[in-house]
Design brief:
alpha/beta, about 150 residues, 7 strands
Length: about 150
């Protein structure tokens, strides 16, 4: 027996997300993480949390994406690839910073190889807190993008 769907997310949807009409294609970018967030993203899209049922789908190319899901601090060698990936996403586009490192560099703040947080390199529309964030928090963030 399936459980009923949770209530729709709060109305704090990013303005650009409204144009996506409830379906968001997402390109994941690891800008320099420890892979803790990647494990949780895998769980968020796995059979238990099933992020796809809310209209969020991972895609392999930024040219097919509506949003970037960025994890980790942005290392010096990933700053330019992140900018180029952002530029390759067609408008309207969104950026989601996943985890404390992506939001504010976390424990890696001030490290020699760190260019900065994701928001220092590309504009961020939504942040998901945690180190690493729980799959429920990631799915909740995705639901804010889709509105479902």
């Amino acid at each position: 027996m399936a459980e009923p769907a949770p209530l729709p997310p709060a109305t704090d949807q990013p303005p650009a997300a409204a144009a996506l009409a409830g379906s968001v294609q997402i390109r994941h970018v690891d800008a320099g993480s420890c892979n803790g967030c990647e494990v949780e993203i895998g769980s968020a899209f796995g059979p238990v949390y099933d992020g796809e049922r809310y209209g969020a789908r991972l895609v392999a190319s930024p040219r097919h994406a509506d949003a970037l899901l960025v994890t980790g601090v942005v290392t010096r060698n990933m700053a330019e690839p992140l900018r180029r990936t952002f530029e390759a996403v067609p408008a309207p586009k969104l950026v989601v910073a996943v985890g404390d490192c992506a939001r504010n560099c976390g424990v890696f703040a001030g490290a020699y190889g760190v260019a900065g947080a994701v928001g220092d390199i590309v504009p961020v529309d939504l942040e998901i807190a945690g180190c690493p964030p729980r799959p429920e928090a990631i799915v909740d963030g995705l639901r804010k993008l889709t509105g479902r």
